[in-house]
């Protein structure tokens, strides 16, 4: 049942694998949240950032925000916001990673005529996690803070009062429709997790127990990946409904 379910928070990640930004409201189009996952981070050899690899683990500690899409701004820990182009020329970014890096656009409707790089994984339009799943992790993980939302990088966090299932959205069948405000979404699949959720990120420490628990109790899944059926605008507090309820 979805009685009382509502959109608690909205998150956007303009640069894949970097930290993102919290929003009060956002437009959702066929490809997902406006401004989400516009850019990839590469090294000099063209390898795209994968924080599962040790050399790329500084990536989520750099924050990114949209500055008039597709332009972005980035910020190193303790630093100021800088234009995205600074990543390739400011020695501070090379020092943060230990090697030179640069931003390159992901393919999109407005990327014609510029260098692009495909994402390192198949991107779904919207990634949703419920507070019920996060609460289950918080109860079952020994380290305080290990169930923080930041580990899982959702676009939409839904306040889910029904706690009868430990991981409700992981059980949603493909094809199930989810409505957030006026936006209609359709479940594609559960979100399968990898070592990224175990590494240190802003505000959370490294914790291998996170993936161990998810693998043991939920098939390594947390959250749901969805496609957009009817675009529109969402805002925090919007009601969330499941087809058939």
What does this structure look like?
This protein has 245 residues and is α+β, with helices and mostly antiparallel strands. It has a domain at 6-12 and 28-32 and 122-242: PK beta-barrel domain-like (M1 Pyruvate Kinase, Domain 3, Beta Barrel), CATH 2.40.33.20. The chain is 13% helix and 31% strand. The protein has 4 helices and 16 strands. The chain has helices at residues 86-89, 91-97, 131-140, 209-218; strands spanning 6-12, 21-23, 25-29, 32-33, 39-43, 63-66, 72-75, 82-83, 101-105, 126-130, 156-159, 177-180, 183-192, 221-230, 232-235, 240-242. The strands form 4 sheets. It has an 8-stranded mixed β-sheet. It has a 3-stranded antiparallel β-sheet with strand order 4-3-15, with no helix packed on it. The mean pLDDT is 95.
Q: Give me the CATH fold name of the domain at 6-12 and 28-32 and 122-242.
A: M1 Pyruvate Kinase, Domain 3
Spell out the helices and strands N to C.
EEEEEEEEHHEEHEEEHEEE
- Give a count of the beta strands, DSSP E runs of length 2 or more: 16
Strand content: 25-35%
Q: Total number of helical segments?
A: 4
* Assigned CATH class of the domain at 6-12 and 28-32 and 122-242: Mainly Beta
In the CATH hierarchy, the architecture of the domain at 6-12 and 28-32 and 122-242 is Beta Barrel
Draw up the topology in text.
Blueprint lengths: L5 E7 L8 E3 L1 E5 L2 E2 L5 E5 L19 E4 L5 E4 L6 E2 L2 H4 L1 H7 L3 E5 L20 E5 H10 L15 E4 L17 E4 L2 E10 L16 H10 L2 E10 L1 E4 L4 E3 L3
Parallel strand pairs: 10-11
Antiparallel strand pairs: 1-2, 1-11, 3-4, 3-15, 5-9, 6-7, 7-8, 10-14, 12-13, 12-16, 13-14
């Amino acid at each position: 049942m979805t009685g009382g379910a509502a959109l608690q928070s909205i998150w956007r990640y303009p640069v894949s694998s970097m930290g993102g930004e919290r929003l009060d409201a956002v437009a959702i189009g066929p490809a997902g949240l406006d401004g989400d996952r516009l850019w990839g981070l590469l090294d000099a050899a063209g390898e795209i950032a994968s924080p599962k690899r040790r050399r790329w683990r500084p990536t989520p500690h750099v924050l990114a925000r949209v500055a008039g899409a597709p332009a972005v701004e980035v910020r190193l820990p303790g630093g100021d916001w800088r234009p995205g182009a600074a990543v390739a020329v400011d020695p501070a970014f090379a020092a943060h990673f230990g090697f030179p890096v640069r931003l390159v656009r992901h393919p999109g409707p407005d990327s014609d005529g510029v260098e692009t790089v495909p994402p390192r994984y198949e991107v779904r339009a919207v990634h949703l996690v419920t507070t019920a799943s996060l609460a289950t992790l918080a109860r079952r993980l020994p380290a305080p803070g290990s169930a923080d939302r930041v580990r899982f990088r959702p676009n939409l966090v839904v306040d889910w009062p029904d706690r009868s299932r430990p991981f409700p959205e992981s059980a949603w069948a493909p094809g199930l429709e989810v409505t957030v405000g006026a936006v209609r979404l359709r479940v594609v699949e559960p979100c399968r997790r990898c070592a990224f959720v175990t590494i240190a990120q802003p505000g959370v420490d490294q914790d291998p127990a996170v993936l161990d628990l998810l693998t043991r109790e939920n098939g390594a899944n947390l959250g749901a990946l969805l496609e957009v059926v009817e675009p529109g605008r969402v805002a925090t507090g919007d009601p969330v409904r499941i087809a058939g309820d």
